[in-house]
Design goal:
The complex is a heterodimer of chains A (258) and B (289). Chain A is 75% helix and 0% strand. Chain A is an all-alpha fold. Chain B is globular and about 75 Å long. Classes of the chains: A mainly alpha (258), B mainly alpha (289).
Chain lengths: 258, 289
């Protein structure tokens, strides 16, 4: 037990980390295939990734999509979270669950439901279709993370401000908003990453000219073995970890994940 | 002022509610209606009236049933593997010294934020014919030919377990945190071995969390698309890749919608059943803490 248990735990950590580390290692391979052991150290696959037009274009699409969708979802989420957190009305839990439904329905089902509906309505503009899907991705993550920071708020603060003559908006601006700020920033980061990384919803809403980065990576993986994808993936991994650290600092990653 | 805040609440909830209504609930209803439309095309003819023909052909076709059955089986194995790996890890995190706990937890949870194709890609490098694992096996003369590990159901199991296991860790840790650590030391003081203390105290008290985590993993695994598509056998091998095929290649939208509805019913029944079981069986224990 004394020796076995640490060994088991170490193996499980290795299982979690190995695939992520392997990608970073092979991204620096000077050879032509993404496999171990690497032949030598080189940054050429990073240069190649940033020169591959499909990747650059997809990166642009994904960044635009994630930023725009999060910016649309955030104010809507803030309003809903404030109403849920400050209301002591019955059915508050039901309200919270209702706003989490985009997380309860499998992404693929959301994707085909939107595909079927958009084509019935003859909405053919891919950026618009994608944006609709991604606002739906961002909304629950924003609401949940803001709620995580608001539920720690003492309601007496608001009542105090109102007793002292503040109207609803002033109380919101001076008390609720500063308290919700960490949740807003963490929620924005979280929603951004979820939107940026999505495949199953986007899959049914893209067209040939508007593919997102994860989908481009997936299709590249089907026919190519060179380390270009490894370079692209490593950049995504490092950036995601950085955002994870920010969320951890602001509200705690576990709270944000529900 | 009282009046203004009672008016304000519905107004604050309206934009989000409307968004969900228009972009989620209504499209789901449209999808549901497609499953009752005459099959065979992208633009079903609703004027002929609604029909059960898609359900009859999906649930009566051995091929579709085999795909759905395989999906369930793989998801069950992934759930079991996630519990097997996730529970010890959760226990370890619960007992870890406070100053290390945050970092050790972060290492488990942070990968959840990385896009799934990126997380699967590492396994493609490790499990491929020229990959590290086959290299070691051939190098050690354990096998003569590289084993076919990638593009198999085994690869799907590995990839999905890697993606989903952190959810078990999260929910078991949450359950264990309600257990006072003194309970374990008390049992040991009274003469129980560490293993017995774990099996008879920590394990039963963590069960609601473990079942909740397992239900989540099962449902997400059943409806996972990326990992079976990237790592599994080619073709319509998994329920989701079958749905993708119906929508994108075969263009039989009513049939694709039907398979999706069947899948949704299975996952919903699993969730409601298991969560109901937890509530009923453990409600007293949960309330007591």
């Amino acid at each position: 037990m004394r020796v076995l248990f640490p060994g088991v735990i170490f193996t499980i950590y290795a299982f979690i980390a190995a695939p992520l580390i392997v990608v970073i290692v092979v991204s620096f391979n000077s050879g032509n295939v993404a496999s171990l052991p690497i032949e030598g150290f080189s940054l050429r696959w990073y240069a190649n990734a940033l020169e591959t037009r499909a990747f650059v274009r997809a990166l642009g699409t994904s960044l635009w999509l994630a930023i725009t969708a999060t910016m649309i979802a955030m104010p809507i989420a803030l309003a809903a979270a404030v109403a849920i957190a400050q209301g002591d009305f019955r059915g508050r839990a039901a309200m919270e669950t209702f706003f989490m439904t985009p997380l309860l329905v499998p992404g693929l089902v959301i994707g085909i439901a939107l595909l079927v509906s958009f084509s019935a309505l003859q909405v053919r503009d891919a950026p618009l279709r994608l944006l609709a899907g991604h606002v739906l991705i961002a909304l629950p993550y924003c609401i949940r993370t803001i709620l995580a920071s608001l539920t720690r708020m003492d309601r007496a603060l608001i009542e105090g401000a109102q007793t002292l003559g503040a109207d609803d908006f002033t109380a919101f601006r001076l008390i609720t908003l500063p308290l919700a700020a960490p949740g807003i920033i963490a929620g924005t980061s979280f929603a951004f990453l979820q939107s940026f990384g999505d495949v199953p919803i986007s899959l049914f809403l893209i067209d040939a000219r508007n593919a997102t980065l994860p989908i481009t990576i997936m299709s590249y993986l089907e026919y190519s073995v060179d380390p270009t994808v490894a370079a692209m993936s490593s950049m995504i991994t490092i950036a995601s970890f950085a955002v994870a650290l920010v969320i951890e600092r602001l509200v705690g990653l576990r709270r944000a994940l529900g | 002022m009282r009046r203004s805040s009672s008016l304000a609440r519905p107004m604050l909830l309206a934009p989000g509610g409307l968004l969900l209504l228009v972009l989620l609930l209504a499209p789901m209803m449209v999808l549901l209606s497609y499953s009752f439309a005459p099959g065979g095309s992208m633009r079903p003819d609703f004027s002929a009236g609604l029909t059960f023909e898609n359900y009859i052909s999906v649930l009566g076709d051995p091929f579709y049933l085999a795909v759905i059955g395989r999906t369930m089986l793989i998801s069950l194995i992934v759930t079991a593997a996630s519990l097997l790996l996730g529970w010890p890890l959760a226990y370890f995190l619960w007992r870890a010294p406070a100053r290390w706990r945050t970092l050790l937890t972060l290492a488990v949870v942070a990968p959840l934020l990385i896009s799934i194709p990126v997380r699967n890609y590492g396994w493609m490098v490790l499990l491929g014919d020229q990959g590290l694992i086959n290299g070691l096996l051939v190098g050690a003369s354990l096998v003569e030919q590289p084993l076919r590990l990638m593009y198999t159901n085994f690869a799907t199991v590995i990839g999905l377990t890697h993606v989903l296991m952190p959810f078990v860790v999260l929910s078991v840790v949450a359950a264990l945190e309600r257990v006072p650590p003194e309970l374990l030391s008390a049992a040991e003081t009274l003469g129980a071995s560490r293993l017995r203390a774990i099996l008879e105290i920590a394990l039963p008290l963590s069960l609601p969390g473990a079942i909740g985590g397992a239900a989540l993993v099962f449902c997400v695994a059943v409806s996972a698309y990326v990992t079976p598509a990237l790592m599994g056998p080619s073709g319509a091998n998994y329920a989701t890749t079958l749905i993708y095929q119906q929508f994108i290649s075969t263009l039989n939208w009513p049939r694709g919608a039907t398979i999706a509805v069947v899948l949704l019913i299975i996952t919903a029944a699993t969730l409601i059943g298991l969560l109901g079981f937890i509530n009923k069986r453990f409600s007293r224990a949960l309330r007591g803490s």
